[in-house]
From TrEMBL:
Single GO cellular component term: plasma membrane
Upper classification of the organism: Bacteria, Bacillati, Actinomycetota, Actinomycetes, Kitasatosporales
Binding partners and assembly: Forms a membrane-associated complex with FtsE.
Start and end residues of each FtsX extracellular domain: 56-160
Domain ABC3 transporter permease C-terminal: 183-301
Pfam families with a match to the protein in the record: FtsX (PF02687), FtsX_ECD (PF18075)
Record keywords: Cell cycle, Cell division, Cell membrane, Membrane, Transmembrane, Transmembrane helix
Gene Ontology biological process: cell division
Segments traversing the membrane: 21-41, 179-200, 221-254, 280-299
Official protein name in the record: Cell division protein FtsX
Gene3D superfamilies: 3.30.70.3040
Membrane topology label: Multi-pass membrane protein
Superkingdom assignment: Bacteria
């Protein structure tokens, strides 16, 4: 009987405040969609870091004849065979180095032609203008500075470059976008909480006569509050279900179909469906508990008679 009463009161409350209930559902749905999207973006960045950091190399570019005339780092002339042998030997002795690959001027020229063959500059370059280099794979990509300190400014070395720095800029941009999404989510969440509180108070005010009678006949505070808390929880749960649907559709549209980024950007290891599905219970739990707690604390003071 009590459960039937609570359920009937939920239906009455939702119908009486249909406009505000709709606003609560939409605001909860949008805020939790942004919350879920930020979690997924964080997973994507972590996945990309693990994938790409494992593939980045440190490159030691060696001085050639043209560098000796134009680059202060190569003022002592082009690299000699002895210097190359010493550099390679020192690299192989370093504990942080996993492997060392030598790239000759001819190989560098061939790679350049493969990548930038359509460039107007490509027709004017010759192999002797290209730089020899050592490509070093590190056991830990974070240890780049160890190699840079040991070889930067050394005779025969034009520069030491770390590909990780390029990736750090990309990941910094993605993490900035993630923070922006979290900020918007926090704002939407505050709006949703304010709407929930106002909706519950309006509902309680419209039924103040019934609640007063229930007080007089000895009904407990929780029994009086239960329908209002349940109304907020149901509205929030509907919003949470919509947020889950938005995330599923969004993942499918952006990665699998529509934009089809998995086909267009096949070098990126995109997150799978398991990453999305594991976030849905958290979103649904948040959508249920957040409005219920907001309604509970909003009613504690309001229903005291």
């Amino acid at each position: 009987m009590r459960a039937q009463f609570v359920l009937s009161e939920i239906g009455v409350g939702l119908r009486r405040n249909l406009t505000m209930t709709f606003a609560v559902v939409v605001s909860v749905a949008l805020s939790l969609t942004l919350f879920g999207a930020s979690l997924l973006l964080s997973d994507q960045v972590t996945s990309m870091k693990g994938y790409w950091y494992d593939k980045v190399n440190v490159s030691i570019f060696l001085c050639n004849k043209s560098d000796a005339q134009s680059d202060p780092n190569c003022a002592k002339g082009a690299v000699t065979e002895d210097q190359k042998g010493q550099i390679k030997g020192d690299l192989e002795k370093m504990a942080v180095v996993d492997s060392v690959t030598y790239e000759s001027q001819d190989a560098a020229y061939k790679h350049y032609k493969e990548q930038f063959g359509d460039s107007p500059l490509a027709s004017s370059l010759t192999p002797d203008q290209m730089q020899e280099s050592y490509r070093i794979k590190l056991k830990d990509p974070e240890k780049y500075q160890v190699v840079a300190t040991a070889f930067d400014g050394r005779d025969g070395v034009q520069s030491v470059q770390d590909q990780k720095g390029i990736l750090d800029n990309l990941f910094g941009l993605l993490e900035g976008m993630n923070l922006a999404a979290l900020a918007v989510m926090a704002l939407m969440l505050i709006v949703a909480l304010m709407l929930i509180v106002n909706t519950v108070r309006v509902s309680a005010f419209s039924r103040r006569r019934e609640t007063g009678i229930m007080r007089l006949v000895g009904a407990s505070g929780f029994y009086i509050q239960a329908p209002f808390i349940a109304e907020a929880a149901v509205a929030g749960l509907i919003g949470g279900a919509l947020a889950c649907a938005f995330l599923l559709v969004g993942r499918y549209f952006i990665i699998d179909a529509g934009l089809a980024l998995s086909e267009k950007l096949n070098l990126i290891n995109f997150i799978g469906w398991d990453a999305v599905l594991t976030k849905l219970p958290l979103i649904l739990a948040t959508s249920l508990l957040m409005p219920a707690l907001a309604a509970f604390f909003a009613l504690r003071k309001y229903l005291k008679v």
